[in-house]
UniProtKB/TrEMBL annotation:
Coiled coil: none annotated. It comes from Gottschalkia acidurici (strain ATCC 7906 / DSM 604 / BCRC 14475 / CIP 104303 / KCTC 5404 / NCIMB 10678 / 9a). This is Copper amine oxidase-like domain-containing protein. It comes from the Bacteria. Residues 55-153 form the Copper amine oxidase-like N-terminal domain. InterPro entries: Cu_amine_oxidase-like_N, Mao_N_sf. The lineage of its organism: Bacteria, Bacillati, Bacillota, Tissierellia, Tissierellales.
């Protein structure tokens, strides 16, 4: 992320704005929320989950990051839908079709089964999927920075 060093500006790339936003965010959260917060970047752009109406990421019992499917996938221009009849989320990007059945320990990528050590779930009327499996299926690289609790997601094709 690039920052404007001119301290009298308050636009989206200003370091002053970034600091102000961080202070406001921390003041509005409980200590538990701060301790459990997970940060994300996708192709160098921050992905913020600030509103519970879109769902909030969490770490599941298998120590996997679970994200509400729609927001991060739409950020990479993937089409996202939910097939209620078959109880699965579907993501389409370029020539890839990723099917994520709810409460199953696998996903399908163009019909090929990929086993997982966790399951997609529905929580608070939101579909949560394991971040790494879904993004890697869409040809993205996922790196975890434990010290900053940040998932860094980059397009493998770039």
């Amino acid at each position: 992320m690039l920052f404007d060093i001119n301290e009298d500006t308050h636009d989206d790339t200003s370091i002053v704005s970034a600091i102000d936003d961080t202070i406001k965010e921390f003041r509005s959260q409980t200590q538990e929320e701060i301790d459990n917060k997970i940060y994300f970047t996708i192709d160098g752009h921050e992905l913020k989950f600030t509103d519970d109406s879109m769902g909030m990421p969490f770490t599941d019992k298998n120590n996997r990051i679970m994200v509400p499917i729609r927001k991060p996938l739409e950020m990479i221009n993937a089409e996202v839908e939910f097939d209620a009849k078959r109880n699965k989320a579907i993501a389409k990007k370029d020539s890839l079709l990723v099917e994520v059945p709810i409460n199953e320990d696998y996903i399908k990528v163009n019909g090929r089964i990929i086993n997982m050590d966790t399951k997609a779930i529905i929580k608070d009327n939101r579909t949560y999927v394991p971040l790494r499996y879904v993004f890697e299926a869409l040809n993205y690289k996922v790196e975890w920075h434990g010290e900053t609790k940040t998932a860094v997601i980059t397009n493998s094709n770039i």
